[in-house]
Records
---
Amino acid sequence: MPQRSPTVGRVLLVDDDDSIRTVVAHALRRAGHDVRTAASLVELDREMRQSAPDVLLTDVVLPDGDGIDHAAAVLRDHPTLPIIVLSARNTLTTAVRANEAGAYDYLPKPFDLDTLTRAVTAALERRIGASTQPEEADDPSLPLIGRSPAMQEVYRVIARVVSNDLTVLVSGESGTGKELVARAIHDLGGRKAAPFVPINMAAIPRELIEAELFGHERGAFTGAAQRNAGRFEQAAGGTLFLDEIGDMPIEAQTRLLRVLQSGEFTTVGGARTIRADVRIVAATNRDLQQAVASGQFREDLYYRLNVVPIALPPLRDRRGDIAELARHFLDRAAEAGLKRKTLDAAAVDVLEAHDWPGNVRELENVMRRLAALSRDDHIGATEVRATIGGGMPAGQDALPDPGIDAAVRAMIERLARQDPRALDDGSLYARIIGEAERPLIEAMLARHGGNQLRAARAIGLNRNTLRKRLDMLGIDTTTRPPAPADG
């Protein structure tokens, strides 16, 4: 009996759309495959009973059930059958569900026929053994949003790495959501019951990085009054997220490389070896290959981290996702207690035309500001233009910036990184107020042309108190514009 070519085989295509079945079947037959089709799960089962295919292609939403649910059942009887899921539900949840059900691959609709043909060929060549983990229900709270082709590729990579502990390097501009990717990998993987511990390399003084990562013993250095566990210990069993890894000093890179190679570390000033039971996800907004070429980043560490690369696209390269993201942020603002708002079509056009240099983070801030400041329930193009341009609707410039809560949280996180005792020693209120005081005074002085009396009234201080605070904070008022008369 003649042997069939490993790149040509029997394909069963399941989709309730006649036009999709016709077009896909024609493309696969032109590639030499023997193609049968079905329009429902009942027809799929009938075809499987007659003759099992070499590859199964299935839609998710079918008239009599869910194709991903059924894929898991099919794999119980045919564990080596490669299943490729085709879906118009182009979300991270769908990609992860397909992976957990044991699917070989996931292709979002609309897909390129050449891409589909290559996926079928690869499935025939590899014949992978697949997992049969039960399906996890859709979770609308998952943080990654977008149906653009660029985000679909991100979802596919995430879906493939959640079931293993491979090191992941997430790259992308600031504000693209690198930490969200890291959290998704953690929350959807086998370590989700253990801690997710982030550390920002750019926010830690060079001399403290090793102590932050690996911990220190009492007396290891001046000020080390007690033993402190480092981030590797805090993340034991879970995920350690090394944010802005490109800003890590070269000497600390050497120590990190040894830990990644050996899987063990010691605390600063300690002698006992501790096993590093963590998954590493690193992130950077820098070009690490260029940093390697310039001698700022170790080449061997780069290859240790870049096992699975995930490149996050800037928002300007996924404009089709902007409307969905904007509405999501308005929904979150409503859940936080602000009045529910909607966007009209012209407002969406303005959002999609903007280049968003601050990426998704900038869009979120704009939408929260609009949710707080817009008088109408329906947000129009004029308000969006004013907000993006740094202005706000007339008569509402005294309302609070809705991003202040995020700013305070960021201050607390930074203080905790710099000095973990700051959250427990009773100094937190004074520290936060101290950090906010200078920009508040400077902003009010600028707003009132340097007039200290008017600035004091706006802040709620008397003039003498303001002068004392100016002296204490070292704020120079000599270069400000002349104050108008007090009259």
---
Amino acid sequence: MKKLFIIIIFFPFGFLFAQEEDKEQIINQANQFIATANDVLVKKGNFPEAEGEYRKAIAKDPVNPVAKYNLANAYYNSEKYDEATLRYTEAAKVATSKLEKHKAFHNQGNTYMEQKKYKEAVEAYKNALRNNSKDNQTRYNLALAKKMLEKQEQENDKNKDKDQNKDQNQDDKDKKEGDDKEDKKGDEGDKDKEKDKGDDQKDKGDEGEDKKDKGDKEKDDKGDPKDEEKNKEGDPKDKEEGQPKEQQPQQVQGQLSPEQVKSLLEAMNNQEKKVQDKINAKKAQGSKTKTDKDW
């Protein structure tokens, strides 16, 4: 029982020793990948191959700040700024010394400056100075970032005012065009009304002329209504009373009227009576008066 207890006590020490050996081996392998990547990148300028070696180092030792920092520098030199910013952030997190953190934040600020992200650059340089307040280069970069940020904000405000003025001018223009359209529409409506009014007056005038021409046609040269039209229309008075007038017989040229016939007959009768009276008078003169009766 006592022997077993001793084994248990010494076993953890053996395990820790093995872990230390493995960790050292891992760090050595990661550093070998880093060295290969540096050599490939510097001597050959082969970024893809160097990137592969750096990734191997990071996979082997995820807490190695050098592998992430060097990979971030490789991305920065290849103008892959988004990837560089990510790797600088990772390097600053796993860094164990302030010097390492300062370098990561300083270069991260440079990456933001290249992207014209001046607000983020100011924050990155501030973080760098928190880890090394004596670095004059970082201080200079911070002042430059602040100046560029102020200029950028002024330009943004100016562009914003310009856009607002442009939008306002466009709104005023649209409103003016709308008002002009409404005015033009109103003028066209007034013109149409005047035109319709003129057409109505013209139609009334034409109607009056038609009535006048019709009236003139219904009159003869003396200005009186023709007999034919008169007979068709009848007496206006009878029309107003709603009673039709009986049509009178018309005298045909060369034919005697009933009055003339009657006068002629009376004259003939008078003439015949005179003739008859003369005949009777002659008879009375030629005959003898008898005094006695003949037997």
---
Amino acid sequence: MDLLRHLRHFVVVARELHFGRAAELLGMAQPPLSQSIRRLERELGVILFDRSRQVRLTTAGQLLLGEADELLAGERRLRNTVDQVRRGTLGVLRAGVPPETPAVTLRALLDGLAARAPGLEVDLHELTSAEQARTLTEGRLDVGLLHQPVAENGLRFGPAVEVPMGVLLPRGAPLARARQVALADLTGLDLITAPPATAPGWHDHLLAVCREHGYRPARVRHARNPEFLFGLVLAGAAVAVAPEAVARREPRIAWRPIVGAPLVRHTSAAWPLRSAHPAAPMFGQLAAEVLGVAETPPGPAQLAPAARAWPVLFEAGQDAKLPS
């Protein structure tokens, strides 16, 4: 027996106290409506309506009306909740971002998610591209923001954003006087980059392009933390290849574009092909919009207090463990 359907019929008849009008409101014929009420009465073992002269609620019917209203309201709330979960606007989204993601970018991403899905909680994790790819395929992360190239391994990718890469130099370095720097001009200098394990595809691509353009680093040095990278660059005899936004964190560092722009980093969101979180495509589109915005420092208006707080969990390092 479809109890909720029969209760909906009962509530309309109880409000109208007229089977004909109730049937019209329900868009059905009167005989099936009467049969529905009779079946409900048999199921509950009580008489709900006094039909002697005019339709009136019995004591049992009056008591049931209040309970039925509450039960049907609960059903509507339940269906609304499930619908929001299905559309990805409610629940928890486990998302990963690279460790070097600027605070302004994180703020814009979280603000955008709060505006588009106010009921969605973001469980944010600081993980390298390699760590994200692994945890996505293991089902311990719902969506990530990865630097390409990344092997698909059962992943779906959102729109990619292209970020031109340039050379980080001490502002007093002779090469910093030029408007552009050729990779071959870096000969004899060490190259500072993230460890291969953090983004193997990008690491290999970077070294291959450097070799193709005449730059074979005297030594490849690894830095995970931006502050450590800046320290190595400022110490001299070493350069780094990074987006322009990275240089804005340290006024003593200059960023110069590379002649011919041979190095462009592609970044996109990724999520599992199977059993994907409903909010993952929305995250991917929003991430592309945020990353695609011109890299300019935000004004005070953009840093206004957020409308809501986010439960954010930061985890770094290859041994970082995510909730199962």
---
Amino acid sequence: MSIKTMLAAISTAFMLATAAQAESPADLNDLQIAHVAYTADNIDIRYAHLALAKSSNPAVREFAKTMIRDHEAVNDQALALLKKLKAQPQDNFLSQSLNEGADQLVREMSALEGAAFDKRYAENELAYHKAVNELVEKTFIPNIDNPEVKELFKAGLNIFKGHEHHAEMMVKAVNGG
């Protein structure tokens, strides 16, 4: 599946989730946005653990280790900020949709081996980071009310844009380029 196809699929999933719930990601409050971000980070950590279990490709393994380290660190910062603010993230339609999609993708990728797994993982990581980065940059950050939460999202976005670039290099590496 091409990256454009995967981006379209992710965008479609977001649109279907919003249509089904008559909500939009732009309508989420800060605590719902925090839940989506925490969920998205945990999904990427889950994908990374699967990659470490299945892949022997050095580029894939290096990327997976980076995902675990960076996403856990951002989640730790988010949880610390929520504790400071005496707030709890709020589950919502988008978090639930992301988890459902992740469950399906983990089942799909678990059935793959070798180069087929590496290619699917790499392409998914690139598409996932592009879609999430766009959502964070264009929808979440402009709609976050709390300045501390907004700053955390801006810092996280800088890290995750680096992941997107790293994912582009990984896709080239697993495709022999």
